[in-house]
Amino acid sequence: MSGRFRRAIRILAEPGGARAEVEDDFHHFAVAIRHDGGYVTEARGRAIRHPWSLCPMAAGELARLRGLPVTTDPTAVYRHIEPRLQCTHMFEAAGLAVTQAARGTGARRYDATVGDPMEGQILVELRRDGAALIRWRLQNGVIVEPVERRGQRPTAYRSAVLAGLPHDEAEQLLILRRVIGLGAARGMDIDRFPNAASMDRGPACFVFRQDVAEHAARNHRSALDFSTGPGPLAEGPTSGDFP
């Protein structure tokens, strides 16, 4: 293949709450949280475009975020509840909504791009609010540029590892870790799997849990290709009063 994987994340915080929306080749989810100034009091989600029929059921699991401190630490959400019981994408979007709420009212947008492999190399880019933020070159899964990260593997950027970093840096690395993993799936024919269980991934998230995966049918032809054109989240925010 010769193209690129693209993910966009749009976040908006207002008094008493925040919402986040994420879209890429495989997914489109929206979440919203409410808070009392110190802790999350409510969290809701909506599955707009999703790979498996039971993904929308995971929205109810976001209620477990009640009591999460409102903090700019993007790793706090991983310590509050077990991520594998959640939809990965709604869960991480909710975490970003919380960090934006902690920063105060205002908006933030991330745009990430992962090029298809060329002789084992991929180019990864992250922009925030339209400005270039990070540019990496990877060779066989290892960062070769920039020099200050040479030899590091993005797969090692787990939340526990990032907990001690400045919060903005940790947020960026968590986003990049996810998009690099998703970019690797662009060459897969996921439509050949009749349900989530047939992928044999283990309990990676809500839909891959035992007793859920075998009932989660594949949403055929739900994947898009944003290699060209305006890209994900090109339209305005999800309409209506959701959430």
Question: What features would you describe in this structure?
Answer:
The chain is an alpha+beta fold and 243 residues long. The chain has four helices and eight strands, in the order ββββααββββαα. It has one domain (4-215). It is 17% helix and 28% strand. It is globular.
Brief summary of the model shown:
The chain has 243 residues and is α+β, with helices and mostly antiparallel strands.
Keywords:
single chain; 243 residues; alpha+beta; eight-stranded antiparallel sheet; 4 helices; 8 strands; globular; disordered C terminus
Give the topology string: H per helix, E per strand: EEEEHHEEEEHH
As a percent range, the share of helical residues equals 10-25%
| Uncertain parts | 239-243
Major sheet attributes: 8 strands, antiparallel
Number of individual domains: 1
- Distance separating the two termini: 37 Å
Total of helices: 4
Beta-strand percentage range: 25-35%
Q: Biggest sheet, strands in spatial order?
A: 4-3-2-1-5-6-7-8
Mean pLDDT: 95
What structural category arises from helix and sheet content? alpha+beta
Computed Rg: 17 Å
Shape: globular
Number of strands: 8
Secondary-structure topology with pairs:
Elements: E1 4-14, E2 17-24, E3 28-35, E4 40-49, H1 76-80, H2 88-103, E5 106-115, E6 121-128, E7 131-139, E8 142-145, H3 159-162, H4 167-183
Antiparallel strand pairs: 1-2, 1-5, 2-3, 3-4, 5-6, 6-7, 7-8
